[in-house]
Write a structure and sequence with these properties.
By secondary structure, the protein is of the alpha+beta class. It is 28% helix and 23% strand. The longest helix is centred in the last third of the chain and has 20 residues, at 323-342.
């Protein structure tokens, strides 16, 4: 199933009893965060998307926790399970030329699916039913203050569009925006992100400004695509269209030379003055700690457009698990086949909630030769956003990387710290407060695989304790007689 816009998704959530409408008056300052945090960390039966219909100071309802479970994240991306994403990508990456006529038609179908995914311009744009260009203002938007020590109110689920000043190529990213006043916001695009590259390219070319458009409340596949760590030069809207099964409808902005999802709820248009910086933060981040204040560019509004009855989308990040964990899990499943294409020995990967994406990665692999684990570790650290992974634990192919108890048991038993810890240095995430210095720090690889002669291990490696199949069958047959 694919969704044309956020409203279609809301209706589908409601039909599946996955959305709760809340009519009690609430405040966008801290109260919505506390409610969403309790819901996202509470019992699974109560973990629902929330639509707050009576937010103080605004006529707009607030949607939050829409992606906050496996079921909702999968529904958002048009699959029955996030694991299906891996199968879809494997099918797309299959390089073999089919021999049969039926195979050729199937392969043609894959190609046509990609062609259909191309975004397209439309003339009718619901996101421009109301246009504020003379005096654009954020007044009336129910922007959240999420945590007590936050530097202010933050837009937390924005789709930020820019164009490369040299090539004109589009980038879509998700970068939080701190509200300074009704016309200006702090633009938190980090050093390793596409928006920051466009800023730096503009400075290199001697430009004064970089035009920006921020869409709030697109269809769920497009919202997800803004978070995906795609290689440079690959259009995030192409990924969104492929997930949707149809291209994203775009509309030209009214005050800047950019295009945005035509069926978005709200659009903020403006520019970043490339010479201007202002203190942004602190902000309660997905690490569970506050990211510290630092100078960032400032977005100046030139227009605000929205639907007549716009819905304001938001998310809250903090100590996991929260809604963003499921967006990260979708990325993990989506990009596993790509990792396997480059490193075929990889069997599976897990980025657990406790590792907040970049702090801990668990990988299972088929080990074949001396130094193989080190090859995989350095291979992963050399791939896109995986360069930010701080700790990578490598286990054998038969280990379930999603069972953290099993992984911990293997690591505790199979690791000799003098031999199996691989230290390196490299880029660090902007939010890593423990790194040696900003954006640069240490890496740790942990080889938790079984060891043998090729690893220089001279003693016999012990067998795991397992009951014989014969006795298991015997006990199975007599189980009802034990009175247990």
């Amino acid at each position: 199933m694919s969704f044309r816009d956020l409203r279609d998704f809301i209706l589908s959530l409601e039909a599946r009893n996955q959305l709760k409408r809340i009519t009690t008056p609430v405040s966008a300052e801290l109260e919505i965060t506390e409610i969403a945090d309790r819901v996202s960390k509470g019992p699974a039966a109560g973990n629902l998307a929330l639509l707050f219909e009576n937010v103080a100071g605004s006529e707009m309802p607030v949607l939050i926790n829409a992606f906050g479970s496996h079921e909702r994240a999968a529904l958002a991306l048009g699959v029955s399970s996030l694991d299906v994403l891996s199968d879809k990508v494997r099918s797309l990456l299959a390089a073999e030329v089919p021999e049969s006529l039926l195979g050729k038609f199937r392969r043609l179908g894959d190609v046509l699916d990609v062609v259909k995914a191309q975004p397209r311009l439309v003339s009718h744009a619901p996101c421009q039913e109301v246009v504020e260009r003379e005096h654009p203002s954020l007044k009336g938007l129910p922007v959240l203050k999420c945590w007590p020590e936050d530097g202010g109110r933050y837009i937390t689920l924005p789709l930020v569009f820019t164009k490369d000043p040299a090539t004109g190529r589009r980038n879509l990213g998700m970068y939080r925006l701190q509200v300074y006043d009704d016309q200006t916001l702090g633009m938190h695009w980090q050093r390793h992100k596409g928006g920051r590259e466009h800023q730096d390219e503009g400075l290199r070319l001697g430009r004064d400004r970089l035009e920006v458009a921020v869409a709030l409340g697109a269809d769920p596949a497009t919202i997800y695509a803004a978070t995906a760590p795609l290689p440079p030069g690959i259009d995030e809207l192409l990924l969104a269209g492929w997930l949707r099964g149809s291209g994203v409808e775009l509309a030209k902005c009214v005050s800047v030379d950019l295009e945005v999802p035509a069926r978005a709820e709200i659009v903020l248009e403006g520019y970043v003055d490339l010479s201007e910086r202002r203190l942004e933060g602190p902000f309660g981040d997905h690490t569970g700690y506050y990211s510290l204040p630092a100078p960032y560019p400032v977005l100046h509004l030139t227009a605000v457009t929205h639907r007549h009855d716009a819905i304001y989308p938001a998310t809250v990040v903090g100590r996991p698990p929260m809604e963003d964990y499921w967006l990260g899990k979708a990325t993990e499943r989506l990009f596993l086949p790509v990792l396997q294409l480059l490193l075929p020995e990889i069997v599976d990967i897990n980025m657990p909630a406790e590792g907040v994406f970049h702090n801990l990665v668990i990988v299972s692999m088929r080990k074949r030769y001396p130094g193989h684990v080190e090859r995989v570790l350095h291979g992963l650290w050399g791939l896109g956003q995986m360069m930010l992974a701080k700790v990578i634990v490598v286990v054998d192919a038969d280990v379930n990387v999603h069972d953290l108890s099993e992984v911990a048991w293997r690591a505790g038993n199979n690791v000799d710290p003098a031999r199996d810890l691989i230290l390196a240095h490299g880029p660090a995430d902007d939010l890593d407060h423990a790194s040696l210095r900003p954006n640069y720090g240490g890496k740790l690889g942990i080889d938790a695989t079984a060891k043998g002669p090729e690893d220089g291990f001279e003693r016999p490696w012990p067998n795991e304790i397992r009951m014989s199949e014969e006795i298991k069958r015997l006990v199975d047959g007599k189980w009802a007689t034990y009175g247990l």
